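Interim report, section 4.2 (structural modelling).
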Amino acid sequence: MSLELMTILDKDGKAQKGKDPNLPPEELKKMYRLMVATRALDDRGLALQRQGRIGFYLQSTGQEASHIGAAYAMQQSDWLFPAYRQPGILLLRDVPYEKIIAEWFGNSGDTSKGRQMPVHYSFRQANFVSISSPIGTQLSQAAGAAMAAKARGDDTVFMTFCGDGGTSSNDFHAGLNFAAVYKSPVVFVCENNGWAISVASKNQTASESMAIKAEAYGMPGVRVDGNDILAVYRVCKEAIDRARRGEGPTLVETVTYRIASHSSSDDADRYRDKKEFEAWQKKDPIQRFKAYLKHKKLWNEAFEKECVEGAKDEIMAATKKAEALPPMGPESMFDDVYMNQTPGLKAQKKELHDLMLKGGVGADIGHFPL
Amino acid sequence: MSLELMTILDKDGKAQKGKDPNLPPEELKKMYRLMVATRALDDRGLALQRQGRIGFYLQSTGQEASHIGAAYAMQQSDWLFPAYRQPGILLLRDVPYEKIIAEWFGNSGDTSKGRQMPVHYSFRQANFVSISSPIGTQLSQAAGAAMAAKARGDDTVFMTFCGDGGTSSNDFHAGLNFAAVYKSPVVFVCENNGWAISVASKNQTASESMAIKAEAYGMPGVRVDGNDILAVYRVCKEAIDRARRGEGPTLVETVTYRIASHSSSDDADRYRDKKEFEAWQKKDPIQRFKAYLKHKKLWNEAFEKECVEGAKDEIMAATKKAEALPPMGPESMFDDVYMNQTPGLKAQKKELHDLMLKGGVGADIGHFPL
Amino acid sequence: MTAIKKKSGASETGTKVMTMLEAINDAMRTEMQNDDRVVVFGEDVGKKGGVFGTTAGLFEEFGEARCFDTPLSECGILGAGVGMALYGMRPIAEIQFLDFIYPGFDQIVSEAAKMRYRSGGEYTCPMVIRSPYGGGIRGGHYHSQSSEAYFCHTPGLKVVIPSTPADAKGLLIASIRDEDPVMFLEPKAIYRHAKDEVPLGEHVVELGKARIAREGTDVTILCYGAMVPVCQKAADLAMEEHGRSCEIVDLRTLVPLDEQTILESVKKTGRVVVVYEAPKTGGFGGELSAIIAEKAIEYLEGPIVRVAGFDTPFPYALEHLYMPDPKRVAAGIEKTFVW
Amino acid sequence: MTAIKKKSGASETGTKVMTMLEAINDAMRTEMQNDDRVVVFGEDVGKKGGVFGTTAGLFEEFGEARCFDTPLSECGILGAGVGMALYGMRPIAEIQFLDFIYPGFDQIVSEAAKMRYRSGGEYTCPMVIRSPYGGGIRGGHYHSQSSEAYFCHTPGLKVVIPSTPADAKGLLIASIRDEDPVMFLEPKAIYRHAKDEVPLGEHVVELGKARIAREGTDVTILCYGAMVPVCQKAADLAMEEHGRSCEIVDLRTLVPLDEQTILESVKKTGRVVVVYEAPKTGGFGGELSAIIAEKAIEYLEGPIVRVAGFDTPFPYALEHLYMPDPKRVAAGIEKTFVW
Ligand SMILES: Cc1ncc(C[n+]2csc(CCOP(=O)(O)OP(=O)(O)O)c2C)c(N)n1
Ligand SMILES: Cc1ncc(C[n+]2csc(CCOP(=O)(O)OP(=O)(O)O)c2C)c(N)n1
Ligand SMILES: [Mg+2]
Ligand SMILES: [Mg+2]
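Predicted structure of the assembly:
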């Protein structure tokens, strides 16, 4: 198993000889547009949190190439079992900004009905499975879904994500093992961004890399430069194709960096060396890809403006719309626990209803229809 | 990492050139005696179960070289975190037969006070930690104990066991990862006996071997012929020495075979090919080592008789003594839940006491002193 | 993806005497014939047919794609099961003993139970988790525990426990057809002892309906699983020795609970004994007491008595004293008359 | 191995105003100074000082050998903790949020809880598992749950929940010194809000003793953790609006439970409200109701009312309606007067 880091673009954005996948211009421009939009969305999310308009935010800044590149080669009918740091995939899958942003507000525009913290998206239309907080749980689920698809003879491929921290989870072990034993069509992408909150990845495991963990499960493992969207794309495309051909799972490690703090609740300065951070800032995946586009004569100021300002404007407008949506009603709290409300839940709903009607509990909200 | 199978004795018991550890005759004879005694103990256990005198038994037949060889190089002060198929280590550590057998009967001679099923031993005097049924839990515990010993500056080494099935457990992943991250003095021995009840080890994982899983944790992994006690001894001695020198953990895979059914509750004929079983029977580790001793002129009929009959007689006598011991009293049920009985447990004890006194519940036992 | 519902080959009618083991096996076979989204998997469920034999013959009849062994990982079994359910299958995950479910507990309480809710109804997890539970086979510490209370306290899960072969079949089929995750806990003590007429072919017992296992007027006994036959014997004793007429309510489903049947019985008799084998403190029986003490206390003519396992880990040698037996339950019944 | 007990450097006396966070931090520092077997570990407890700051400064003061970060594995944290305890340390394992404990649940319920029992007392597991729990910080689904009931139903574990800074310190020190595994659950909602005088230096609050947080004569309110201040406000409301005199019992330790204090209060007032934030069904409050209904029903003058979280997963946007608040508790108090 090679521990070599697969790279296509050098630091100046030049493709190494013979490695350029030579994607059509429109694809390349789409990739750029997605990365830029993802960054803009992230900036907006953090700003809203800092302004106190949403309760929490978690950035993916610096990891745009890693996750957009990974999912780029999938078909729309393929499924994603994401972690919480791949928002660019939502844009890739054409989820409207307004839907994404409504999730942050947790109001009636949120597909998850305000049940989860910001950034825990669920978009069935995009085959983007509901995100949860517990680290790693999606990995064994993806393996199971892939087992099911294989058993049914569907040609769906599954991609699932985790962080470097996630490699230590139970589900990493179980998920990769099951996927390999049943030769299921799933691609495991470990975004190694150097940190699991304050724990550096070198303290997460003593193994030489995350990719080498594939050996333990008898599947191929590949290490790729996570800030090089073309390299990530190529490696994942191969893994996706392999999976679709029935040749089983692959573990891909994208080597990248968490540029921001862990989340809006964290302050990385307390535990992280500024130098390390600054060195990585210079490797910005968007800048690197922009340089490539320039070499290819696909970039100019007008295109930049269209990408950046276009995204910002759309996001601004979507925020306005999303924020204005009404909150979820209190009665919604009792829905979706089960398909049908149990007698017990009906009684509890009535209890809350009556309490609110009396003007005591939740007086600011008023009552709700039973 | 080498996937080669480390072997010393060929199938006729000849040591390969340059590989014989040349242990002193007395050590070699002790090894043989331990293997034979372990087999005899196992035979007795199953017989007692078949006679309905004990409720359950689980054999280690065919794995004597694997576990005795592994633990042989430890010091008495080193700790064991066993699985349930290493009874020979009790003999190695001088636990009296009567104590072992009393555990099967779960009576007042049992160090565990009849609280667990047969073969779930606990012998503090032997630094042999209480066995539990859930697969794998000892692995992360061993890592933790080793972390503690290292932090205290003790030179204790830890050895822990699991089966091929155990490699799929959460604690395998967590235990090996922790041990490697903290470079703790622990040797992980995976006894790959081909089966996890009815699941063949090739269906347990798609990896090329169990030893190679060490790569995932950045520790050395070694594959050794588990029916060759000298090979197992040598590999584990190196791993133990390494651990004691502060160089961290090792994963050792002993390749062996479960000759018996999984336990007295199982019938391997329902799922296992007879041919496979017969082929392995020919590789009996005791016969192989006997041949070696013969080559070394350390074996004769008198020695054989002394080993075999000696063990049988002692085990017979111990069985008689152990079986005759009185059962645990009902009051003991409420002990050892906590160091001190809580008021609630005291009340429950009294409740049972009063019920029994009235002659209802447990009428066959009578009452117990409060 | 569409469910490929086949008509069950034979439209069987009539009944047959079965053990609970056989009834459970029959339920799975029936649904596997009926709905090809149903798959059964777990440790040793294939060729071996399960350590108790509940899956015997399924591997042979439906092949490896629909009845298969897994690696030794409850985390994997349950995580994969959740994934299969998300993708549209009807997975039945067998956990060999309930005592071994904890390595996969996270997938149940954090994932399966919350999937529908957290995704606003977009993703669902129609999955059955089957597992033998409870004492009575001299299995000691780790082959005997009754931890239904953990699951009952986890919104999003349903919890089903049969006490007769016919119910086992009917409730299991209902569980497989249910759109939500169901913990289907099998009282292993009576796997073979419970033997009775079971309807052949299609047989569904609706979840959420308790069963009056014996009618009576003086005391209500609330119980489930292997405690039902114990309570039957206790009721006989109570009648013989003290002339007490006991009404036995077999809960059948703990979540959703049939509060109505419970409260009606309690209001009628005015006395309650709650029986369960789990450790007394924090057991589901405490919830039953609490419901009654909140909603029907004015009808009570005595204390709500609980007869349960003691607050110790499950013992091996003393199992027979640990578990509630007819005499202990009978003593509990008498306590409800001491005000 | 022997414990190397050092005399605490400074023999501090007096008190200081601390938040609950600071009190917990102070407890660990005090015991780490006092007993070098005490080590603290978990995710982000080192340089970062914990996501809430409970371990702030410990890494700096005691070094990496005694306060260290772990890989992201609750299974590893708890399994390693059990191993350390077996070897003679006094491990304090921090679980970042109680919601994340399940990957390591097996090590708690199957191992730590049963070690002493299953080994006949040969091996013990004196370990403290600390974890913030409960709602009130808008943490949604996975940063808000109260699952104390799972642990209370697991014989072999002690379960401790403080509601004041002084208790947090005293109970944590008692837990660290305890010879059995202790779940020390920290009500994160009041980490910073609870602020009070805390004794400096050695301060031990015995496990198993409830605290009368307010004396009263009409109704007993049983509660713990972050619900204690909520109940205080509810008691004020009940007095203002209806002239009810409430007695508040702050349980402090759920296992072992101070039944005596509970029953004495109930016998005195004849009315009970049980308050907890966990989902109502199967919550520990049900156990409290059951104990009272079994042992003191003849003293009751009204139903035993429970005010609890609803039987849904913990919501994000509607958290304020999900959790019991003073008005909901006050309404519960009134219900005990409706017979
Ligand atoms: C089981 C579990 N334990 C702890 C946490 C708290 N937690 C949230 S994110 C995180 C670090 C994750 O690191 P990594 O997997 O590298 O992903 P990244 O945040 O770097 O993308 C931790 C410890 C959690 N969410 N789940
Ligand atoms: C967590 C858990 N799941 C399931 C079981 C049931 N079980 C007992 S032994 C066993 C197979 C173990 O196989 P392996 O690890 O290879 O050990 P071996 O029996 O071959 O020595 C299983 C599945 C268990 N004890 N614990
Ligand atoms: Mg990371
Ligand atoms: Mg095996």
